[in-house]
Write a structure and sequence with these properties.
Layout (H helix, E strand, L loop, with lengths): L7 H11 L4 H32 L1 H14 L2
Helix pairs in contact: 1-2
Length: 71
């Protein structure tokens, strides 16, 4: 068992928003959500790095500029 000091107001808000009944549920939900967000951000970052390596970013920027100037 782990004991931590948690902001009661933040915990109450999280419990209400997530519709959970226990503090444990709220904390586990928040931790899983945070981990998933960080993993998603890392995947997106890797995707953009690969796109940049392929020249896709520059191609998209060129296309955007061309479309913008043709209006």
């Amino acid at each position: 068992m782990t004991q931590i000091d948690i902001d009661d107001d933040a915990l109450e808000r999280a419990m209400a928003l997530a519709h959970v009944r226990t503090k444990k549920e709220a904390v586990n939900l928040a931790l899983n959500f945070y981990a998933e967000q960080q993993e998603r951000a890392a995947r997106i970052s890797r995707h953009f790095e690969r796109a940049h390596e392929w020249g896709a970013v520059e191609d998209a920027e060129r296309l955007h500029r061309a479309e913008k100037h043709s209006r």
